[in-house]
Amino acid sequence: ATYDTVITGGTVANACATFKADVGIKDGQIAALGLGLGDAQHVIDARGKYVLPGGIETHCHIAQESSMGMMTADDYFTGSVSAAFGGNTTIVPFAAQQRGQTIPEVLQTYDDRAAPKSVLDYSYHLIVTDPTEVALKKDLPAAFARGITSFKVFMTYDKMIVSDEKFLDILVMARENGGLTMVHAENNAMIKWMVGRLLERGYDAPKYHAVSHPAAAEVEAVRRGIALASFVEAPLLFVHISTDAGARAIAEARMDGRMIFGETCPQYMFLTADDLDRPGVEGAKFCCSPPLRDVQTQTDMWRHLNAGSLQLYSSDHAPYRFDKSGKLSTGDTPPFKTIANGLPGIELRAPLLFSEGVQTGRITLEQFVALTASNAARLFGMGHRKGAIAIGYDADIAIWDPEKTTQVTAAGMHDNMDYTPFEGWELNGWPVTVINQGRIIVDGGELKAKAGDGSFIPRKPFDPTGFLPPRAPEMAQATNFGAKLF
Ligand code: DUC
Ligand code: ZN
Ligand code: ZN
Ligand code: ZN
């Protein structure tokens, strides 16, 4: 047969266009787009369905220890399976350095965790908490050489935080090697000061978690991060933006031609801090950092995604069960300060955006593709092979049935969690068939792939094309970019 698989009769959408075409797949790649393609071993009837690039989830915590040392509930099998059932074909979780660990040790650890288990294609972002000379000069450049071209640093958490000086070191190292730095931007001192004042007064219920992480802490850190990245002319991506003012600072920097990017997450668009205020410790299920905000923020985040101030929409899947292994590890009524930070949601990320965005007319189908796949592919060095339905690209495809409605329950999810923050939600539209490099991963509600079927994807350097040189001339002089002094 000419093709291994042909998907017939569907509506194909990319980030820039929607059209009717059959899709021919051969040797794991998209080999043809057209009507009346030749014969195939396997035909998938997609009439009435959307044929979209598979989702690329670039912010999720899988088989990773938290800042408090707690292992996530999902490993690379359950994490990737849950991602696949939610329409994703590639995941880029974090490989987190614990202080004292070398970068090669970290990568070996995560290769061992991922390779035998992932059903989907994967890569990692390296979380750098200990930027030693060896790491900066030798080990991180070596990570680039194997296609790991993004890093995350923290401006908060005593066990993770890097000083502004170290932050500059990492930004310059990334710039020199063609990397993209990601940052968790919250002011550590403001949060610690708030926690102290709250606990002093006996306010330790889950709802005070949100109070202890004020919007102002995010805004301060975003502005400082922009200043630091601009100073050394390095690209910087702010993850999990949860405030209008933070997103506006990013938009303003972008208008100045700076290589600044932003991401938000479903929790800031669909939940609020009121969810923390539930009987007993139920609110612990909604503890994440940055915390849930308010209804106005939900509208703000939709607007920032529409306006392009924020380019990425990721789950920040950080699964900790509602039991002793997770949220309740410090007792049945844990003070907010000791509750593991994070919400599960890798499976619902794209379905939430499809149901509440595409189906309600808040965004177009093309924007949905950009936000769930194409933008992440381009930012993270995979735009040459993923994030589009195009000839020669990886056959990474999610076939969505816009008519399929789903009642969300924890039991219906494929992660290793015992709750979902979206329990009871009714979602319109669901990915019914998911294909990764031509392999059928999910079809008709069933898993068709095995642990270890996914491959590590070496990524290309960050591409700064299209960004203007900074407007402020003192910065170029200060860092002498042209002379590569650093
Ligand atoms: N940062 C994340 O990105 N996820 C969970 C908790 C955190 O601090
Ligand atoms: Zn079939
Ligand atoms: Zn973070
Ligand atoms: Zn995260």
TrEMBL record:
Record's keyword annotation contains Coiled coil: no
Gene3D superfamilies recorded: Metal-dependent hydrolases (3.20.20.140), Urease, subunit C, domain 1 (2.30.40.10)
Residue numbers bearing the N6-carboxylysine modification: 152
Superkingdom field: Bacteria
GO terms of molecular function: hydrolase activity, acting on carbon-nitrogen (but not peptide) bonds, in cyclic amides; metal ion binding
InterPro entries referenced in this protein's UniProt entry, alphabetically: Amidohydro-rel (IPR006680), Hydantoinase/dihydroPyrase (IPR011778), Metal-dep_hydrolase_composite (IPR011059), Metal_Hydrolase (IPR032466), Metallo-dep_Hydrolases_sf (IPR050378)
Domain Amidohydrolase-related residues, every copy: 50-440
Modification after translation: Carbamylation allows a single lysine to coordinate two divalent metal cations.
GO CC terms of this entry: cytosol
Keywords: Hydrolase, Metal-binding, Phosphoprotein
Cofactor(s), by name: Zn(2+)
Entry's family note: Belongs to the metallo-dependent hydrolases superfamily. Hydantoinase/dihydropyrimidinase family.
Role of this protein: Catalyzes the stereospecific hydrolysis of the cyclic amide bond of D-hydantoin derivatives.
Protein name: D-hydantoinase
Organism: Litoreibacter ponti
